[in-house]
Known about the structure:
This protein is α/β, with parallel strands linked by helices. The chain is built from 5 helices and 4 strands; from the N terminus they run E-H-E-H-H-E-H-E-H.
Amino acid sequence: LIARKETRPRRLGIMGGSNGGLLMGVEFTQHPELWNAVVIDVPLLDMMRISKIAAGASWEGEYGSVDDPAVRAFWEKTSPYQNLRKDVKYPEPFIFTTTKDDRVGPQHARKFAARMEEMGLPFYYYENTEGGHSSGANLKQQAHTNALQMVYLTRKLMDEPAT
Length: 163
């Protein structure tokens, strides 16, 4: 899209949750120059410690074990939490999680946000106290989360930056 001049990074955003949240974290850390908005929703972000967080141990069949040297080498280069860098200009992400997420656990999003804060990097963070591994326990909470994400995307992609 950028190469064909359909758009430019200032107007390009990405959004994904759960496994898609992992993909958003990887894109955010590996290609920050491509996006102006990144919604990282109920994400897996610390792949070096995934087996120790929430239901992570059950995912070794899907993601492999960091005890395997080849898997460890892959995640060392790819895991979003481990690959955040202070000297990189990242877009300001919207990180969303839920306190009661029993699949991914809120720890991934919390740790990622804490590391960004330690590095002085800007971000938006919202943690819903209800809902499990989704945006809300009911339609009202889901609508609230969707509204937060849409306002974020609108401000990042449609509004003109302040001069």
